[in-house]
Amino acid sequence: MFRPRIGLEIHIRLLTSSKVFCPCPVRYGDEPNSLVCPVCLGYPGSLPVLNGEALRMACLLAHALNCSIAPDLRFDRKHYFYPDMPKNYQITQVSAPLGRDGSLELETGGGKTVSIRQLHLEEDAGKMIHRGNRTLLDYNRAGSPLVEIVTAPELETGEEAELLLRSLRRIVRYLGVCDGNMEEGSMRCDANVSMSPRGVEHSPGAEAPSGDPPGRKVEIKNLNSSRFVRLALDYETSRQREILRRGGRVAGETRLWNEAAGVTEAMRDKGESSDYRNVPETDLPPFPLDPEYLEGVKRQLVELPSPRKRRLVRDYGLSGDAADFLTEEKDVADFFERAAALGADPRTAASWLRSEVRRILNRENLSLGESPLTEKRLVELLGLVREGGIGGGIARKTLEEVFRTGRDPAEIVRERGWEPITRRDALLPVVEKILAAHPKAARELREGKDRALDFLTGMALKETAGRADPGLVKALISDVLKEGRG
Ligand code: ZN
Ligand code: MN
Of 156, 160, 339, 466, which is most buried by a Cβ count within 10 Å? Predict the structure, then answer.
């Protein structure tokens, strides 16, 4: 009867080396208040200067999200009084955000596309650290560059919201504009939720249903993991649905997710909504964005995860799951495509990357780029399996050695004496020994129980540490039994 309408406001911390309006470094974990200057501390008379790299990253992200870009760059002062805001205002974009009317395609989820209302550039606040009954202030973060992205309320479930965050996370990481680490605050999310009666649509841009609505907009603040976003929104939508089902009204308010209790809770009542007294930031006069500059930024766009995933499925015959895994990180997808270009069978390469290679990388806490495995080495290893006849067990051991020693697979196999045993005269004694050691299995095989053949072949492989050619072993076992020697 009621349909949830969920919108997200996401703050993305840009990966610039310095702050957005001053040259102070952007770093985390330094001595508190050591990365500050008169500008980011808001001293009277200090003047902000826009960081060109922050602008480039914001424009790149706006392009990637299909936004139309404002002709002029304009900043405003949004006033509020809070100890972590040294100037008592935040420099942000209210009147003319950098990007508008964009869209973001959700990974999986039936290809749903969500509208992006606006995207703007702004500065971060400092950090408050509460110790007992005292509050300490660290301004190292004050003035760090943020991009805020506001979606239209087109999401309906917690799962969709989580999917949107994951899709956005992939994109910002592909573009290299943000590390996407929600737990460390590189992506922070607020959500708004309201209910509309089914069949009644609201024009985009409208706030909560007008008149005397059954469901007003509820905001949920500070959701700092994509899982919390899903859990909090699932809880909140069923809470609101239940109120409406009983004929009640949903109060418009701000709520917080209580992780321990698994519920959203109303924040202390702030009374009237804040008046930010927005005024133009006169210290940063508007300036036109040169179309040639914007074109230049657009040329830096890389192929984004969703289209790349579709292309990997189409061009290499991969499953959706395999393509999804490969496109999670850009360097993995790049590695895969270079290996395929060097002649690796795409499905085999994808499956090794997804299983053995991923397992070792996770265990060693390495990224593919940091590891000694190059695409050339992977291709060589797969070639040893395909043409050189080495078995799966030896191939896995060889991969471990590549990671341990940083040497080439063929060299490792040769030096360790791991080449397959393919000569009859070398394998015959092994087969005879196995048959003698397992008379019961030999008898069963003679009686036509084929399972015994697999068992005996397995024993021969074990005897040779995986080096025996399994096809040859099977042929030899039959030969020996036929000759009546087993
Ligand atoms: Zn500074
Ligand atoms: Mn903001």
Answer: 339
Domain boundaries, the chain: 2-291, 305-416, 424-482
Q: How far is the CA of 462 from the centre of ligand 2 (A)?
A: 62
CA atoms within a 13 Å half-sphere pointing along the CA-CB vector of 114:
30
Can you tell me the distance from the alpha carbon of 36 to that of 447, in angstroms, rounded to the nearest whole number?
84
| Ligand 1 midpoint to CA 122 (Å) | 15
Question: Which residue shows structure tokens 């606040």?
Answer: 125
Of residues 406, 381, 403, 405, the one with CA closest to residue 394 = 381
Cα gap 130→127, rounded to integer Å? 10
Report the distance separating Cα 197 and Cα 211, nearest Å: 14
Q: How much is the pLDDT for 170?
A: 94
Cα 428 off chain centre by? 53
CA of 472 to the centre of ligand 1 (A): 72
Question: pLDDT digit string (tens) for 405-456?
Answer: 999 999 998 898 888 777 888 888 888 889 989 989 888 888 888 888 989 9
Distance 150 CA to ligand 2 centre (A): 9
Task: Write down the pLDDT at residue 64.
Answer: 97
- What pLDDT sits at residue 109? 58
Q: What pLDDT is stored for residue 473 in this prediction?
A: 87
Q: Which CATH number fits domain 424-482: 2.115.10.20, 1.10.10.410, 3.30.980.10, 3.40.50.620?
A: 1.10.10.410
Measured CA to CA, the distance from residue 399 to residue 412 in angstroms comes to 9
Instruction: Tell how far the Cα of 7 is from the centroid of ligand 1, in angstroms.
Output: 33
C-alpha 355/C-alpha 396 separation (Å) is 11
Q: Could you give the CA distance from residue 157 to residue 220 in angstroms, rounded to a whole number? A: 14
pLDDT per position as a tens digit, 40-80: 999 999 999 999 999 999 999 999 999 999 999 999 999 98
Could you list which residues have their CB under 5 Å from ion ligand 2?
148
Contacts 24+ apart (CB under 8 A), 44-49: 47/283, 48/21, 48/22, 48/91, 48/281, 48/283, 48/284, 49/21, 49/22
User: Whose atoms come closest to the Cα of 276: which ligand?
Assistant: 2
pLDDT surpassing 80 at residue 486: no
Q: Residues with Cβ within 5 Å of ion ligand 1?
A: 22, 24, 37, 39-40
Task: Determine the distance separating the centroid of ligand 1 and the alpha carbon of 41, expressed in angstroms.
Answer: 7
Taking the CA atoms of 40, 42, 43 and 49 in sequence, report the sign of the dihedral they define.
positive
pLDDT at 115: 97
The pTM score is 0.83
Q: Contact 350/318 with Cβ under 8 angstroms?
A: yes
Cα 46 to averaged position of ligand 1 atoms, centre (Å): 10
